[in-house]
Amino acid sequence: MNFKTIFKSLKNKDMRKRIFAVVGILIVYRFLAHIPVPLGDQATFKQAIDNFINGSDFGGFINLISGGGLTNFSILLVGLSPYITASIVMQLLTKAIPRMEELNKDGEAGRRKISQWTRMLTVPLAVLQSVAYIFILFQELIASNTSGSVEISFQSWTLAVTAMTAGSVILMWLGELVTEQGIGNGTSTIIHCSIISSLPVTAAQFGQALFDTSSGTLSLFGWLELPVNPTMFWTVLAICVGMVVVLYILVKINEAQHIITINYAKRVRGNSAYGGIKSIMPIKLIAAGVVPVIFAVAFLSVPAFIGQIILRADSGSQIAQNLVSWFSAPSANTFDSSVGLQAKDFVYPIMYFLLVVMFTYFYTSIVFNSQEIAENLQKQGGFIEGVRPGKQTEIYFTKVVNHLNLFGSIALGIIALLPYIVDYLFIVTTNSPLGLSISGTGLLIVVTVALENMRQINSRALMVTYDDYQ
Question: What are phi and psi of 14, to 5 degrees?
Fold first, then answer.
């Protein structure tokens, strides 16, 4: 990463235009995140929303990735979840249906058509999720009894669902606008911005707990008294040290790559000779980036979401209670200290790990198509020493990528599980979770997306400043 090159590239008008465009889009997104859903008095929903957020990790996670959209009861409450779900479905269908696979190989026109189908599928999914969210909050409102009147007319329902669906579609469009600027994936960048926007509140909560001296102050060697909570001080210090270590490992894993040397055959045309050179092809250890984590979290949120809907309709449903408890990590609000850790507490982490590994393999096969790369190399006269062009090169690429994925996916899965491991260690030692499950996942997404965006910015900076090195 060359920051000198990045700063030098800011002299380029096109580079400045792209960066300012992305910043402007993110500002518009944050503005939209504070526009409330037109559904009655917002104050009447406040207690219901707080109960939903504090009732399970699912509510807290929805609030996190929507950038406070749930707390604000914003039109962006649904967020990018329908678009992510539609993308997963379309990519699975592309692999399962030969006609769609051929369309994907047709080049830009075929991929543009699949993208259009993904957008079309996003709309009905956004409608369904909007209806479900409003239903959950409405039932929560009735249960909390925050108002004497909780009747909502059909017109109000329709208006609210339309506003939330429109908000999801607008967010999808903003994400695509960010992607078009070429300095980061739009969907990941918006989720990154959502999580970053909650950091000031989290920092304020930690600061308030740190400087709460009602239970005593910290004494250093008996001669200096610090006005901080001793328990919270060591907890914050341990978290900060752990974050630095995890960040270092995460950066190293993201930057790791396998270099393959490509040789180009020498060709003579008339009096001119072409080729006869060597090049390199770097293959990243985790070519899929943070997408497997986002996909895994989105996939795992579905059972808890369905369980919440069933519970609001039938509070005694055992199936719904199991779905919510199995697919939610223990938090300070849901953990039962009298029982301790149970088998159900390990369902979510295990499923999370397996899905991260699975989606790493799946998404890598999409972004790194061994057959297509081998065919392009053969057409260009390129080959790998000791490997025959064509099918053998494809097999070689597949073997290398699978080996990288084996280590990369397991490493990514373990890093994703670290917050849960810390939580469970605190449960064993203090009989209370620390509550890092949601924030830990958010940290992983923030760091990985930041690294990927900086890499793309650096690549474009090198391109626009190339003439300076001539």
Answer: -65, -40
| pLDDT single digits (tens) 302-361 | 787 788 778 777 777 788 878 877 777 655 555 555 666 677 777 888 888 999 899 898
Q: How many helices (H) and strands (E) does the chain have?
A: 17, 7
Cβ neighbours of residue 444 under 8 Å, at least 6 residues apart?
Answer: 250, 290, 293, 415, 416
Q: Which residues pair with 261 in a beta bridge?
A: 280
Rounded distance between C-alpha atoms, residue 173 and residue 170, angstroms: 5
The answer regarding whether domain 215-470 maps to CATH 2.60.40.10 reads no
- CA-CA distance, 320 to 58, in Å (whole number)? 14
Per residue, the 3-state secondary structure of 327-393, as one string, reads CCCCCCCCCCCCCCCCHHHHHHHHHHHHHHHHHHHHHHHHHCCHHHHHHHHHHCCEECCCCCCCHHH
Closest to 142 in 3D by CA, of 54, 52, 48? 48
- CA atoms of 386 and 294, how far apart (whole Å): 39
- Helix, strand, or coil (residue 147): coil
Amino acid 140 reads: E
Query: Are the C-beta atoms of 328 and 57 separated by less than 8 Å?
Result: yes
The predicted-structure confidence for 87-108, as pLDDT tens digits, reads as follows 888 888 887 888 888 887 777 7
Contact 146, 51 (CB under 8 A): no
CA-to-CA dists, residue 39 to 73, 94, 125, 146, 156, angstroms: 9, 39, 21, 15, 6
Token representation of residue 25: 């889009």
Say if CB 353 and CB 416 are below 8 A apart.
Answer: yes
